[in-house]
Design brief:
By secondary structure, this protein is of the alpha/beta class. It has 10 helices and 8 strands.
Length: 214
Amino acid sequence: MIDLNSHPTIVWDFNGTLLNDVQACLNALNVLLQARHLHPISYAYYRENFGFPVIRFYESLGLIPKDAEDWENIGESFHMRYLFSKTLRLQPGALEVVLAFHRLGIRQGVLSALEQGLLELQLQQFGLAQKMDFISGSRSYDGASKLSAATELNLTHPVILIGDTLHDAEVAQAQGWSCILCSAGHQTAARLHQSGFPVIESLKDLLPILQSVL
């Protein structure tokens, strides 16, 4: 699954992969839905239906922005609620795996749809920022595709992207990267298996591979 002898670059997705934030996202989204007199959704429904671009998912729930400014306001409102959530925490095994890669001298970084400033803030908050060789976030709050940002990284192969959504698989395929998907995040294992890439239940599943070479 991970050939460390090939000296790969590890590209981490952040939300849902390193950070366990599904409940925080769901809570913030339901506040927005209720504010517009729309029905809240369940945790299970969220994971069965969430996807990129985020605006398409929101529109499927009836949360349709009037214009670009309204969509920006929705994004800012969502993130202000999200950031103050008490449910935000690292995924089990996240810190251990990141530290293990760092000790092995393996280059790693983050590619995220999260706004750059918020991404850097949260990586710092959870003690991961200084272990990353690069941090690539979004210039806005719109939760759009990461395809162009991945291209701009201009990484030398081999590269392994570790993510939690089918969009991560799309990014990896477009770049010719390997990919491992973790079903502890924003989409279910059944959905992730559609990608054809390996699917793990937890980042802890990577630890035995790393421990064998530490």
